[in-house]
Amino acid sequence: MKGLYNRKFPHKHIENDLTITQLSQCRNETPRTEWSKTELGDVTPHNIKQLKRLNEVVFPVSYNDKFYKDVLEAGELAKLAYYNDIVVGAVCCRIDTSENSRRLYIMTLGCLYPYRRLGIGSKMLEHVLNYVQQDGNFDSIFLHVQVNNEGAIDFYKKFGFEIVETKEHYYKRIEPTDAHVLQKTLRPKITNGVKNGGLLDPKKISSQGLTITVLQLDITRSCELVTSIYVLLNIADGEVQICNKDST
Ligand code: ACO
Fold this sequence. Notes:
Layout: H1 20-27, E1 38-42, H2 48-58, H3 65-72, E2 78-83, E3 86-96, E4 103-111, H4 120-135, E5 140-146, H5 150-158, E6 162-167, E7 179-185, E8 203-207, E9 210-214, H6 222-235, E10 240-242
Parallel strand pairs: 4-5, 9-10
Antiparallel strand pairs: 1-2, 2-3, 3-4, 5-7, 6-7, 8-9
């Protein structure tokens, strides 16, 4: 049994508070039947021990009591994944409001080794993505991942995450100690007086006696548009007014 759940972290021991069904299923091939189903369920005081055991097996780092106390209050931000009614994965997130942004931080997302590549990780991440989309008020989603965890990096990249930073010596007790910060931007960080949500304050851009008033701008297209404006200024005659992004 040892190492079957967790070939990547063989120092971890499987102990006996996983269910008998789980243990017996791990001895065989992961069942991939037509009726296989993956569902997400709440974390409650009744199943928190399963979450702890799962995290101990899946991740090389340990999480303290405060982590699990907070998870119990996280609502939709913490979910267990069930494969044919067996707990095989979990995702735990929290809201981070540092750096003048509101970001969702994925603390842990993982599933037991024999149940990987069955779409369970995707199901958990899609749940998180739906959550932030419905909330509508997050700037980005981010997480830390060990630099050698290529499978997880590929997994997150598939969902539009990018490596935005590499932190040396982020981990204290595991090798390698460096972590990538993976991030998926939901709305760009707005600077220079431009408001959140992609609206630009009405602004006049003048050159060679010509003026363009930009009232509203989709910020994601701003670089492209501003370049176009300056090109336009060289050929246009008079004042051009752009009222909304659809008219650009
Ligand atoms: N190598 C390359 N691509 C991968 C891998 C891999 N090992 N795993 C997933 N992908 C990509 C593939 O494109 C895959 O689609 P495909 O199977 O059709 O090719 C796609 O991601 C979706 O895969 P899922 O089946 O949904 O992912 P899975 O259920 O296997 O979960 C996860 C992926 C969570 C990374 C899993 O491997 C795992 O639990 N790893 C151990 C824990 C971990 O490293 N967690 C993430 C880092 S820490 C954190 O999240 C905060």
